[in-house]
């Protein structure tokens, strides 16, 4: 069997895993299956079970509340933030290396055939840490998508995991803050957490290249209009 065929098979396995996770998410949503996450807090080794649960459920893109809110229902604020961050790091690492092992070689072959893929990858790798950090902050994009693409590209794991940790800390704190604030009826904590989420999502919008170029063009137009004729 040639190496190209092996690469295609591995890439096919990766696609099958992604389709399976999406299909499972749809099935669980239709069936309305309740994971009863609050029962974890009654277990003897609750933090360990929570991390295992978090990593496992993260593979399923459930179309409901973000998975980062879960810890707030079970643990106080600080333990919830630490455990959720730890679970996020483990999941990101696993999905990154699975994707890289199964799909990176064939993705490089696709890049050689499609210039747009190659160009996008090159732009992302111009400043991988900053670009991944901004993508993480723009939390509307599912984290699974970022994990998969980072694994397929030539981005170094150091840049990937560092940006993941730095961007995840404020995002997790805001998500947990909303839930804990709701539980203890602390409306100030809820308002501050919502403002924090808004600020997080505005940062990548403000610093995006396209927006910066538009602002520069607007200033150039204004200068031209104000210039004496």
Describe the fold and architecture.
The protein is mainly alpha-helical. The protein has one domain (3-226). It is built from ten helices and no strands. The N and C termini lie far apart (72 Å). It is globular, with a radius of gyration of 21 Å. The chain has helices spanning 3-31, 46-58, 70-74, 77-113, 115-124, 128-137, 143-152, 157-183, 187-207, 209-226.
What is the β-strand count?
A: 0
- Helix percent reads over 70%
The SS-based structural class is: mainly alpha
SSE succession: HHHHHHHHHH
Low-pLDDT segments: 221-227
Number of discrete domains: 1
Rg of Cα set: 21 Å
Mean of all residue-level pLDDT scores: 75
Strand count, sense and barrel status of the largest sheet are:
none
The percent range for strand residues is under 5%
User: Ends: how far apart?
Assistant: 72 Å
Helix count from the secondary structure assignment = 10
State the shape. Answer: globular
Question: Care to give the gist of this entry?
Answer:
The protein has helices at residues 3-31, 46-58, 70-74, 77-113, 115-124, 128-137, 143-152, 157-183, 187-207, 209-226.
Structural descriptors:
single chain; 229 residues; mainly alpha; 0% strand; disordered C terminus
Per-chain topology:
Layout: H1 3-31, H2 46-58, H3 70-74, H4 77-113, H5 115-124, H6 128-137, H7 143-152, H8 157-183, H9 187-207, H10 209-226
Helix pairs in contact: 1-4, 2-4, 4-5, 4-7, 4-8, 6-8, 8-9
């Amino acid at each position: 069997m040639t190496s190209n065929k092996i690469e295609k098979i591995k890439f096919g396995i990766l696609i099958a895993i992604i389709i399976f996770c999406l299909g499972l998410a749809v099935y669980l949503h239709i069936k309305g299956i309740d994971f009863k996450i609050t029962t974890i807090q009654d277990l003897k080794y609750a933090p360990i079970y929570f991390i295992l649960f978090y990593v496992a459920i993260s593979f399923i893109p459930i179309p409901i509340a973000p998975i980062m809110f879960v810890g707030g229902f079970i643990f106080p604020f600080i333990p919830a933030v630490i455990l959720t961050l730890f679970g996020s790091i483990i999941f990101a690492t696993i999905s990154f290396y699975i994707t890289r092992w199964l799909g990176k070689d064939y993705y490089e072959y696709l890049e050689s055939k499609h210039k747009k893929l190659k160009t996008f990858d090159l732009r992302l790798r111009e400043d991988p840490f900053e670009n991944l950090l901004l993508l993480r902050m723009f939390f509307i994009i599912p984290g699974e998508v970022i994990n998969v693409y980072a694994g397929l590209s030539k981005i170094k794991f150091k840049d990937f995991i560092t940006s993941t940790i730095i961007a995840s800390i404020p995002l997790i704190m805001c998500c947990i803050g909303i839930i804990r604030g709701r539980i203890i009826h602390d409306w100030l904590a809820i308002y501050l957490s919502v403002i924090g989420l808004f600020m997080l999502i505005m940062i990548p919008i403000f610093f995006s290249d396209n927006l910066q170029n538009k602002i520069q063009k607007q200033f150039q137009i204004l200068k031209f209009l104000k210039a004496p004729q």
